[in-house]
Amino acid sequence: MPLAKDLVHPSLEDEKRKHKKKRLVQSPNSYFMDVKCPGCYKITTVFSHAQTVVLCVGCSTVLCQPTGGKARLTEGKDCSFYEDRIPEMRLLSS
Predict the structure, then answer these.
(1) Coiled-coil regions in this chain (predicted)?
(2) In what helix (H) or strand (E) does residue 90 lie, and over which residues does it extend?
(3) Hey, how many other C-beta atoms are within 10 angstroms of the C-beta on 94?
(4) Which residues, 6+ apart, have CB-to-CB distance to 50 below 8 Å?
(5) Which of 6, 37, 74, 79 would staple 56 via disulfide (CB 3.0–4.6 Å)?
């Protein structure tokens, strides 16, 4: 009797739902973001699960605030960000 799921080649949705240590290849849920300040246009690198308030280096405006898990980008401001995963993730996904 064949299995309903392929255990060797799981789908990306199934892998994202699993705990970070229970995946086929262990990978973290966290990442770094390059956040651009809407006031002075300086770029600040912010950890996705930051536990402190992150301020802009140039104009000291609040870029993100901590929550229970992931840091929340400041609402009402156009904070653009670039998600930078750990380099090993790029090698595995391609």
Answers:
(1) none
(2) helix 87-93
(3) 5
(4) 64, 66, 71
(5) 37
**Inter-residue contact 73 to 79 (CB < 8 Å):** yes
pLDDT digits (tens, 9 = 90+) for 47-78: 989 999 999 988 888 999 999 888 898 875 55
pTM: 0.66
Structural domain spans, the chain: 30-93
Question: Is residue 80 within 8 Å of 36, Cβ to Cβ?
Answer: yes
Per-residue CA distances from 57 to 70, 83, 87 (Å): 21, 20, 26
Q: How many CB atoms sit inside 10 A of residue 79's CB?
A: 20
Q: Give the single-character DSSP code of 80.
A: E
Amino acid letter, residue 92: L
pLDDT bucket at 88, cuts 50 / 70 / 90: very low
> CA-to-CA distance for 85 and 94, rounded, in angstroms?
13
Q: Under DSSP, is residue 92 helix (H, G, I), strand (E, B) or coil?
A: helix
